Amino acid sequence: MIQFNTGDLVWLLPEIILFVTASAVVLMSVIVRPQARPGLAALAVIGALAAGWAAYGLRDGNVELFSRMVIVDPFATYFRYLFVLAVLGGVLLSVRTLETEGGNRSEYYGLMLFAAIGMMVMAEAGDLLMVYIGLELMSLSLYVLAGFYRRETRSNEAAIKYFILGTLASGVFVYGLSLLYGLTGTTSIRAIGEAVAAGGLSRPALVLAVAMVGTAFAFKVSAVPFHMWTPDVYEGAPTPVTAFMSVGPKAAGFAVFLRVFLEAFPAAQPDWNNFAIVLSILTMAVGNVIAIAQTSVKRMLAYSSIGHAGYILIGLVGGTAAGAGAVLFYLLMYTITNLGAFGILVVLQREKGRVETLDDFAGLGKTHPAAALGMLVFLFSLTGIPPMAGFFGKFYLFTAAVQAGYVWLAVVGVLMSAVSAFYYLRVVLAMYMQEPVGIGGGAGEPMPQPRAVLAVTIAAFLTVGIGILLNPLLSLAAASLPKM
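Above: the chain's sequence. Below: its structure in token form.
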């Protein structure tokens, strides 16, 4: 029987704040005049900041709530920070774009906040049922956000594809959950781990259950071969939504990957370790190789995000504490950098027309040097060029693989990073070595977006200055590891 104590709700204050804010935004969008609706973005930002402050105030907590259905520990707190960061970036990038393309329908901000709540529930879950609840809350919100431009065919297509494949992934997860319940008699992550460690379970059934649960998580992080939805959905969704989707759900997916596989299935590591290795290599190879052929920068970044999922999967191989800590640090770096990269696409957006192709970036270094410099910083970081944040993220991931005895896997990661340099630097060459034909070259000037510029500027400074904060951030990641 689940034990409920109203005093425990204080530990869920960040989620409560987000829920109240999201509800207020949706309700006020009906009351206020259309001209005032963009101001509701400020309410969403205030709510996200308040939730982040509440999470900071609860940072020392390590409690199990509602019969261990929910766990509020340093691991959950770390991901709370990441999700708040993703929401802040998503909202700030959205305001002007929503005015010109989205019709000022401010339920948009509410859906983004509800998605963040789902992500937090996933990171805090001590039971697979809570993982499912958080997964569905996040997914349902993102389905609507992906198709928010109702009059655009690409947006509608993105929402439908994401919904169909997302529903399939949820079904696979539920089936794997039911197998685990049939084998162990529980859905508690810790109790499942104890049952698996005790032995006596049907190995074929256990392997199938682990594979099904892993498949559902792999879908959310865009791992190959469960990545098919990613390029089309990222390309068709509104660009701020794509920025949010590229970081928030991926972080949530890896949060449950770490929580479930390191706590519930450590005794089954010989079975799932090979699964993680194959998944990592395929994801790095497919994401980076196919990205080379893309002429759309937005689609290229979509395949790039697939490749980065492959890098992060390296941290799961071996099930070591060093690998898990490297995953946490890399997710922080990736969140900042990817929000910035997609943010440049938003900042350069014109009144009539998105900025997506390589031609749009041709000569950008001459016509808009600040935007070109920002994109240069983010692309260098994604490539892994020092002293950008991405270099440190990859360094610690590959070092963890070497320490776990997988030197060859680290070498594969380095080679795939070299492949990624080709398509990242192709954008740099277009910006600085070609004559203007896109923005500033007769195709119209970007519309003013001070909030988006602020978000991108902060992301750029964090990407460049990550070395200054390196030791505190590494210590935070190490202190936030799940129980192993």
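The CA atoms of residues 358 and 427 lie 7 Å apart.
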